[in-house]
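From the shared-data thread, chain only:
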Amino acid sequence: MNDAQLLRYSRHILLNELGDLGQQQLLDSHALIIGAGGLGCSAALFLAASGVGHITLLDHDEVDLTNLQRQIAHTTDRVGHSKVSSAKEAMLALNPDIQVTALPQKADAQLLAQLLPNTHVVLDCSDNFQTRHMLNLACVQHRIPLVSGAVIRLDGQLTTYDPRRADSPCYACVFPPDLAPEEISCATMGVLAPLVGVIGSLQAAEAVKLLTHLGDSLVGRLQMLDGRSLSWTEMRLRRQAACSVCGSDQRS
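Structure, as tokens:
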């Protein structure tokens, strides 16, 4: 790190659990964020500020006026721009020291197969089950940790799936593809803006922890936030032997 970096990241370096070695790990890391909406905006800004050296954003959508209530990387004058280019502008304004790759595309299996071999952590900030299951499958295949967040109305969820660990469930263990619930979206159900920031910021925190081996990850623990009372509930998760993605039949 040069002198400017030592100053920029000094509050990280002061942490005994992180220090200069941990900060260098962040600078050498590559994070992939799927979705540049509410969750993705918050996560991306904090990963950029934290000094993750290379961040790739993947989202095919454009900024709409209705997004600005919660998608804090976007601005009124960027309505109509691609979300990934808008978020990239905000991230580089915050920290020009990093590399941001903006991909205005839909996630698909072929693209993920190209991206994941050079990725150290993936953040699922998407808003539909099809994308979540596709991303989960790719992360299991490439053994990349996946930080998953979701918010709708006044409720948030957060967990980590880490296929490098034998005890870790995957997304399909918890939400089997053949039992997918009916799709709901904030466009029809609404969402409280700050809760999206809370969960997205915590996704970034979890990613930083994974990249620097700091503390204990959320593997096997689903955190649920009730925005009505601002109370947290934790559910224990287990790997399912019969899982269609990571079960014993798939590993044999």
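The mean pLDDT is 94.
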